[in-house]
Every structure is written in structure tokens, then in C-alpha cells.
Amino acid sequence: MTKKIQKRDAEASKRSIVLSAIKLFSTRGYAGTSMDELAKECGLNKAMIFYYFKNKKGLYEAVMEEILQEIYKAITQKISSSTSAEVQLETFIKTYGTFACSHPYLPALLLKELSDSGAVLPQQLFKSMRKLFGLFSDILRRGEKEGVFKKSMPMVLYFMVIGSLNLIVTTKPLRQKAAKLDDIELDTCSECEIEDISNYVTSNILLVLKPFYKE
Amino acid sequence: MTKKIQKRDAEASKRSIVLSAIKLFSTRGYAGTSMDELAKECGLNKAMIFYYFKNKKGLYEAVMEEILQEIYKAITQKISSSTSAEVQLETFIKTYGTFACSHPYLPALLLKELSDSGAVLPQQLFKSMRKLFGLFSDILRRGEKEGVFKKSMPMVLYFMVIGSLNLIVTTKPLRQKAAKLDDIELDTCSECEIEDISNYVTSNILLVLKPFYKE
DNA sequence: TATATAATTAACTAACTAGTTAATTAAAAG
DNA sequence: CTTTTAATTAACTAGTTAGTTAATTATATA
Predict the structure, then answer these.
(1) Which of A75, A118, B166, B198 qualifies as a cystine partner to B107, CB 3.0-4.6 A?
(2) Domains of chain A (ranges plus CATH)?
(3) Chain A residues with CB inside 8 Å of B201's CB?
């Protein structure tokens, strides 16, 4: 039995709020996003936001939960098809890069949260961040046990990876603008594809982990 | 002739506003900082802020200008004492790390701004960012010409450096919290000194630029 | 000492903020 | 067809926001 088109659809309304919230939170930040504006953006009455999400913080929590789960799912899925630590690491970095690029709200929101050390959502961000870093860290540890990776500082390498990829995505408009004025010669990578950047980051990290690695 | 203690000192008032603004903007962000709160924080009447800085954006601009100039000065000073591209690069990274650690508002503000692609201050952030990146980029280019560095993607390497160092500083409280609960084994580098991290980042970048480099 | 100027203040405004409420609709269940 | 329940709305509140204004101090100068 096919669902008929309903005038009232709780799930659709809820989804619409989350989607608009992702857009606004990632561009204007938590404090910079107003619930009036959000209601206008998604075409629903403001009271609906509080009806479904209790308060602003609750909505923000739902938004962060959603996108962090999404990226985690995307990465674990791709990784599962391989057992080699090298390939898994490569897959991790490339999947993160591609996902970040096609969902640019992720880097914006993540950097904003991390630059606050989780001022809005300490507990929850903490758990999700930990989960993703745990994945990365496990790959390095396994590679080390198997003798294919050198001993390393996983936290620093992780930040080198997500730091660079996130910044590449969020600064894209800024870097393109920089490329237009040619007062000084400066390559801001304004035409680079995310695949090339992911590849470069991957080979750099592998170079660090495998001293005799050649790309 | 020594200046007597004055009840009215424009420079001191202005300075006091900027210092409090740095503190608040870096912890609460632009939108999250209120001018009433700032006035209370620095013990001056709110009207003084508008008297000296015209409006909120003007104050923010002054704050960003100040700290970006400070880090630029710190780095150029240290770098000037060497001519070798390798040593200059090492000095760049280490000075940035130490400065970021002892002025933790820098990473917080920079990451916030960069994650917006300069939503508040496109023009100015743009120029200051360019200047600092130009310094980094010049070192790589000179090293390349002199045959001591491989060809590289300076923008990506730059983001790997400042991305990791900034994140290490801003997430410190979060990582220390993570270290306390030991449900899963996970090294978050909570006890690491910034010197060790800067060293590690430096040797990683040098490894990328000089394939036969041994630390 | 008188005057001009710069620094400071309290009190104000108009717009905006997150969140509430009570009434109203639409759909599902009996 | 009626009743219950869930979804939606307009209108509201109480507090906060950036920014203004006119009056008032203090200081340097003539």
C-alpha cells in the first residue's frame, strides 16, 4: 500500500528542520543562527522546532549527531572491504576528503565545534570525535603490530589529516578570491580537486609511517 | 619625567577593551560575544567601546589585526637569524606552535574565522592570512630552487601544519577529559608538550620535503 | 583662571532573542 | 460519524542585543 501524499507529515517536517538547521548552523554558527530565521528558511512555524527538538541546544545536538553518524558510516563501510592497514588508512583519508567536499557543512561545523573545545556540546561531540579518532588510531596500531607502520603519534597525524582536509574545504571561496588578484605570485591551490589533495595528504602520511615508501 | 597615574588614559582604556575582547571573542565567538558583557569584563562603560571602535565589527577587526600582526612579527623575527630553508621552516613551525600554545586565543579565533571562510572579515583576514602563508610558501620555494626541497603543494602542507597545531591547542581540555575515562585504550596525547608536537610535525614535513631525511 | 577638548557616564531605543501558550486544524481510531 | 490524538498556528512574553544621545566630568592649554 503506497503512502498517500499527506498534508501533515511529522517525519518530513522534522527532516526539513534538520536540513535547514545544518545549512544555517554551518554558515552562521550556533550563536549566529536564530530560530526565527530557521523557521522562515524551512517554511514551518517556529513553534514546530520546539515541538520536535525541545530547545535550540537539542536541535544542534540532533544536527551534529546526524552528520557525525553519516561520516562514520561512510568510512566504516568503505574500510570493511579491505584488511590491509595501508589500504584502510588510504580509504579513511580519501573517504573523509570526498565526504567533506560533497557535504561542506561537515568541516565548517566540526572546525567551529573543535575551536570551542566543544563549548556547546562537550559530552556528545566528545563521544563522536572519539569514535572517529578511535577508528583512525586502530588502523595505525594494527599496522604497527603487523610491522608495516612505524611508531607514531596518532593524535597528531589525525589532526594533520582532518585539519588540512577541513581547512581546504572551508577556505575554498577565500582561496579562489586570492587567486584572482595577482599582485604577488602565490599558489593557493584554488583549482585543485579534492581527489588530488586527498592523494597528496595520503602519500604524505604514508611517507611518515613507512620511511621507505615511494609514491 | 615620569608619567603620573592618570584617572583618564585613552590608550589604557583602548588596550583594556582589546584585551577583554580577545578573551571573549576567542572563547564565545563573534556572535556569541555581547558588548554589555564585554563592557562588564573590562570595567568600562559600554559606550566607550563604540567611542573607540565605532561598532562591533570594527572592534573585531582591531582584535584580529592585533593578533595576526603579533604572530607575524614573532615568526619573521626568529626566521631572520637563519638563511637555510630547512632551518627557517623548522623555526616557522616551532615558533607558530609555541606562540599558539602561549596565546591560545590565536588558534581559537583563527579556526573560527577560517571555518567561516572569513564571513565576518573577508577582506582583512584574507590579507593577513595571505601574508603569513606567503612567508611559508617563500621558504618552500627557495628550498626548491636551492635543490634541498622536493616539489610540493605548499597550501596543503601549510594547512597540515597550522591545522594540526591549532587543533592540538584548542582541543586540549577535551583531550585531557578523554584521557581520564579509560573505557577504551586511546592515546589522545593529553600529556604531550607543545615542543614535542612541534618537533614531530616539523620532522614529518621535512620527511615529505626531503625523501631521504632521517630525524 | 578660563576655555576648549577629550574621556566617561547613565539612561535610553528599537529591533531581535529563545521559548511559551492556548486555540485550531487534520488525520487516525473506535 | 464521533472521539481522540497528533500536527500546526498566531500571538505572546520576558529578556537581550547593538548602538545612540545628551549630559557630565577631567585634563591640557591659552
Answers:
(1) B166
(2) 9-53 (1.10.10.60), 63-209 (1.10.357.10)
(3) 156, 160
CA–CA separation, B115 and A168 (whole Å): 10
* CA proximity to B140, closest of B169, B164, B161, B117: B161
Query: Does residue B16 sit at the A interface (CB-CB below 8 Å)?
Result: no
Nine-digit cell string for A34: 536564530
Residue B117's pLDDT band, with cuts at 50, 70 and 90, is confident
Give the DSSP per-residue string, B37-67: HHHHHHTS-HHHHHHHHSSHHHHHHHHHHHH
> Residue A102's CB: how many other CB atoms inside 10 A?
10
Conformational region of residue B189, where left means phi above 0, alpha means psi within -120 to 50, and beta covers everything else: left
B52 and B13 Cβ atoms separated by less than 8 Å: yes
A39 close to A49: Cβ distance less than 8 angstroms: yes
**Nearest chain A Cα to B125, which residue?**
A174
Measured in residues, chain A has a length of 215
Is B215 exposed, middle or buried, given 0-12, 13-18 or 19+ CB atoms closer than 10 A? exposed
